[in-house]
Amino acid sequence: MTSSSQPGPPPPDRASVPTHRLVVLVSGGGSNLGALLDAHSDPAYGARVVGVVSDRPGIAALDRARDAGVPTAVVALRDFPDRATWDRALTEAVGVFSPDTVVAAGFMKLVGATFLGRFGGRTVNTHPALLPSFPGAHGVRDALAYGVKVSGCSVIVVDEGVDAGPIIAQETVPVADDDTEETLHERIKVVERRLLVDVVGRIAREGLSVEGRRARLGRGPGR
Ligand code: GRF
Prior knowledge:
By secondary structure, the chain is of the alpha/beta class. The protein has 2 domains: about 1-120, Rossmann fold, CATH 3.40.50.170; about 125-223, Formyl transferase, N-terminal domain (Rossmann fold), CATH 3.40.50. The chain has 6 helices and 9 strands, in the order E-H-E-H-E-H-E-H-E-H-E-E-H-E-E. The strands form 2 sheets. The chain has a 7-stranded mixed sheet with strand order 3-2-1-4-5-6-7, with helices on both faces. It has a two-stranded antiparallel sheet with strand order 8-9. The longest helix has 26 residues, at about 180-205. It is globular, with a radius of gyration of 19 Å. Bound molecules: 5-O-phosphono-beta-D-ribofuranosylamine. 5-O-phosphono-beta-D-ribofuranosylamine binds near residues 28 and 61.
């Protein structure tokens, strides 16, 4: 406590600290979205989900967003004459929320050139396998069919390839002899949610630097 009559600098006003804005892309159950929504309630997390965009209506992820009071939009491919037009509409729908980072969390569509032109380098994706092995929509099934003993999850920067962008973080998950696609995926998803929440929070608080294929959390030396 000080008794000085000279007022010091005003205390930092939490409300005026710009929060890192997240838009989350979803296609299904939205448990990864749910984990981000749990995390964002803590101001120390440094990021807030400001919008959720889905490529299909009526999914549980949209209910989770609405329950949390987060605005949603649906941009379904079938409502557009071709992928390029859909991609432009998706870009616009995401752009409405002015995101700092876009998080594809169980989003089962590839974004296109318009989207990457605007949000490339600041869109991340989570994948339930250890990339570059087993990219694509059936990563868990493919890893199991191959007979791997260790799988896991990867958080990557989205580029024009299929789960091909620079890897930000990975964690391993052991494969059990009696695993099915469902049991292995559920076990991976427990780790995946924690990893995604951790990575996205660190991007918000520390930044992300990408040089070629090397992605690093933090601003990097000399920045
Ligand atoms: C996650 O494992 C994600 O990596 C994969 O689909 C799952 C989506 O889960 N592409 P949810 O919708 O977040 O529950």
